[in-house]
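User: Run a structure prediction on this.
Assistant: Running it now.
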Amino acid sequence: MPHLRSSPALRGVAALALTLICAPLVAQPVRLANGARTIRAHGPELLDLNSASRDAIAAINGIGQLYADKIVAGRPYKARSELVQRDIIPVSLYLRIKHQLIAMPPEVPATESGEVNDVSTAGRLDINTASRDELTELKGIGLLYADKIIAGRPFKATIELVGRRVLPPAAFDQIKDRIVATRGAAPTN
C-alpha cells in the first residue's frame, strides 16, 4: 500500500488549500480612478469606508442613499463594526454586507523628505490638554460637556467623544473641525 504522506496528489491538494487560505491575507490596497481605495483578493472586492464615494457605498445591495449619507457623515472609521456600534446601520444589514467592507486608515500627507505633514492640526484645540475654560469657548460646549471631556481623557481620536458617549453627535458636529486629539498623555488637572 502506498504511503499517503509522500503522495504527489496529496501534496498538490495541500499546496492548493494553502494558497486559497493565504492569498486573501496578502492582498494589497488598490487606488480606484475616483480616488477611493479598495482591496482586491479572491472573492468580492472590499470597499473602503473612509474613501469610497457616496454613490459607490449606495450601490452596495441594501445600503441605499440614506445609509450612504450616514456612512459618509460618520467618517473616519477605524473598523467596519463601528457602523453598528455608532448606530449608523442596523445589525441585520451589517451582517449581510460586512464581507464587502473594510475600514483602512486614512492616508496622512507627507512632505518630500518623508516627514508627516501636521498642517491639519494647526489652530485646533487639543481635547487631551485643553483646560475647562478653553473647552467651554467652543460652540455648544458648556461646563457639563467640558467636565465630561476632561474626565474621559485621554482620547486617541476626536470621534471617541461620540463613540464613548461623552458628547452627542449634534454637539460633536459643531466642534469637530476645531478640535484634535494628540497621542500625548493627558495632563493631571
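The longest helix spans residues 8-22.
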